[in-house]
Structures are given as structure tokens and as C-alpha cells.
């Protein structure tokens, strides 16, 4: 399904009823990375996924895709679907978008799942790497980015023994527009530091980290969780940066437990 949001078409899926949980995908993938999580939750709540601008079947606008613009797209989709408040579940770039959403629309967040992500901005060398990656995507295409990302996003054990996960990840990357990939890299490179937001969060937060995540190691998740009052941390053993795909059963157990607890709490819904 597609909706006209902020002047572009956003592709999305909406399954189930009840409390809304919006899944925000990682770079450089698309909403189908959440298939196992939607299957686990659609009988328990309303599971919504979307292709962020520049990815999947959503439009690729001109210029860098800023995290704030992606957050505005999520907010616009909520309005289109008559969702007042939602649980946001973001992994990696999806976590950046979730924090940007909280900064702009705090009253629309019921709870957060921050998986394999960080609140800090990129250091200078990280920004330079993103800019070079953006140029490579435009010059050499999406397959070159897939080549780069396989050993970065997946745990060594996944790369060595689980070819179907590797193939699935590569297929998602290669199906994306090189221009969209480049735009997201440039948008992530200039994202602001969100560390100042963490101590202000007053709703349930689940922090998830893959034990073999080389991009956002467990210590990064621990540091982020320590700054969020009342948050809980779950480490997914044997998973790299894409913990939801690499160890879906373990990820889902943590997710379902958290979502069921949030659903029992009184809602503070307000009109958008």
C-alpha cells in the first residue's frame, strides 16, 4: 500500500489491530527486514512497517534524506492511518529516525525499542566514510554497497554458516536505488547528537544489542540504556548488527514480552 506523505509516496504495510507498533528499518534495507517480527506480533497488536524515503518502493526525493524528514514521514503516515500514539521499533538507522521522531513529536511516542543503534552523532571520520560510501553507491551501484555491508552488518558466524540470511540481506540492498542509498548516507552523516534526549524519556524503552555487533557494540547499548531511566537491555547472543534477522526467535521473545507489558499500561493518547 502507498500513501501520499509530505509530497512523496511512502510504501507501507498495516496488519493486525490494537496498539500500534511501527517498525523502522535499517540502512540500506527495506521494510521486509521486519517480516518475522510482524508475523510474531500481528495477532497481538497493530504492526505497521514502511519503506523510508529513498528505499524499497517509496519515492526517492532529491537531496540528502535527513533523519528529521524520515521522522516526519512516520508522523505523516500515523496521521494517515489515524494512529495517535505508537510504539516505535527502530534498528540502526531506524533507531536514529526513532530518536529524531521523539525529539520532534514526544507526545506521539508510547514506547521505544532501540535495536543495534546509538544516540551519538558520527565522529568526523565516520562522516567522511559515509560521504565516500554515498559517492561509491552513485558511481558503482547498489551491489557495491552490498559487498561492503555484508561483513559489517552480519556476524562472522552468520556469514559463514547461514547463506540464506546473507542472500536475503543482499537482495534487499541490491533492490534499492543507488541514489536513495547515497541520500541516506548523507543524511546520517549530518544527523545531530541525540544523547541529550535520553535522560528526558519517561516511557518504557527496550534496548537490544547483538553480542557480535561490530558497528554498535554491546558497550554502546549499555551506555545508552544507562542514561534512560527504567530501560531494559537484552543482548542477542550470536547476532551481529541485524539481530532481528540473524536471531529472529530470540529477538522476538524479547520484543513480544516488552510489547505485551506496554500494552497493559494505561494509554495517554492525544490527538495528533
Describe this structure in words.
The chain is α/β, with parallel strands linked by helices and 272 residues long. The chain has a single domain, classed as Alpha/Beta hydrolase fold, catalytic domain (Rossmann fold, 3-Layer(aba) Sandwich), CATH 3.40.50. 47% of the residues lie in helices and 17% in strands. Strands 1-2-4-3-5-6-7-8 form an eight-stranded mixed β-sheet, sandwiched between helices.
Set down the secondary structure blueprint.
Layout: E1 2-5, E2 8-15, E3 20-24, H1 35-41, E4 46-50, H2 67-80, E5 86-91, H3 93-104, E6 109-115, H4 124-140, H5 142-153, H6 156-161, H7 163-175, H8 178-189, H9 195-198, E7 205-210, H10 218-226, E8 232-236, H11 243-246, H12 248-264
Parallel strand pairs: 3-4, 3-5, 5-6, 6-7, 7-8
Antiparallel strand pairs: 1-2, 2-4
Please state the CA-atom Rg, rounded to the nearest Å. 17 Å
**Range of strand content:** 15-25%
Taken together, the total number of domains comes to 1
The ordered H/E elements are EEEHEHEHEHHHHHHEHEHH
Oligomer: single chain
- What's the CATH topology name? Rossmann fold
Describe the biggest sheet?
Answer: 8 strands, mixed
Tell me which CATH architecture applies here: 3-Layer(aba) Sandwich
Mean pLDDT across all amino acids: 96
State the strand order across the main sheet. Answer: 1-2-4-3-5-6-7-8
Binned, the helix content reads: 40-55%
Quick one: CATH superfamily? Answer: Alpha/Beta hydrolase fold, catalytic domain
Q: Given the helix and strand composition, which structural class is it? A: alpha/beta
Q: For the record, what CATH class applies?
A: Alpha Beta
How far the N terminus sits from the C terminus, by CA atoms, comes to 22 Å
Assign an overall shape: globular
Amino acid at each position: 500500500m502507498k500513501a501520499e506523505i509530505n509530497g512523496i509516496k511512502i510504501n507501507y504495510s498495516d496488519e493486525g489491530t490494537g496498539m500500534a507498533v511501527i517498525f523502522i528499518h535499517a540502512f540500506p534495507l527495506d521494510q521486509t527486514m521486519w517480516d518475522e517480527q510482524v508475523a510474531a506480533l500481528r495477532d497481538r497488536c497493530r504492526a505497521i512497517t514502511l519503506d523510508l524515503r529513498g528505499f524499497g518502493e517509496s519515492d526517492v526525493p532529491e537531496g540528502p534524506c535527513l533523519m528529521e524528514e524520515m521522522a516526519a514521514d512516520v508522523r505523516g503516515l500515523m496521521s494517515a492511518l489515524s494512529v495517535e500514539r505508537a510504539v516505535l521499533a527502530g534498528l540502526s538507522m531506524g533507531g536514529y529516525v526513532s530518536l529524531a521522531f521523539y525529539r520532534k513529536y514526544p507526545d506521539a511516542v508510547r514506547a521505544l525499542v532501540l535495536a543495534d543503534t546509538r544516540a551519538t552523532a558520527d565522529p568526523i571520520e565516520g562522516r567522511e566514510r559515509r560521504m565516500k560510501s554515498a559517492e561509491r553507491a552513485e558511481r558503482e551501484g547498489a551491489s557495491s554497497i552490498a559487498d561492503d555491508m555484508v561483513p559489517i552488518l552480519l556476524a562472522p558466524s552468520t556469514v559463514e554458516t547461514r547463506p540464506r540470511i546473507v542472500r536475503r540481506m543482499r537482495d534487499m540492498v541490491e533492490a534499492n536505488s543507488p541514489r536513495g542509498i547515497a541520500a541516506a548516507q548523507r543524511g546520517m552523516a549530518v544527523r545531530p547528537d541525540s544523547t541529550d534526549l535520553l535522560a528526558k524519556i519517561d516511557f518504557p524503552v527496550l534496548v537490544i544489542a547483538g553480542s557480535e555487533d561490530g558497528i554498535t557494540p554491546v558497550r554502546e547499548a549499555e551506555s545508552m540504556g544507562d542514561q534512560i531511566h527504567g530501560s531494559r537491555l537484552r543482548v542477542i547472543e550470536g547476532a551481529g548488527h541485524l539481530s532481528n534477522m540473524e536471531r529472529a526467535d530470540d529477538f522476538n521473545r524479547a520484543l513480544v514480552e516488552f510489547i505485551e507489558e506496554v500494552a497493559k499500561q494505561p494509554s495517554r493518547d492525544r490527538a495528533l
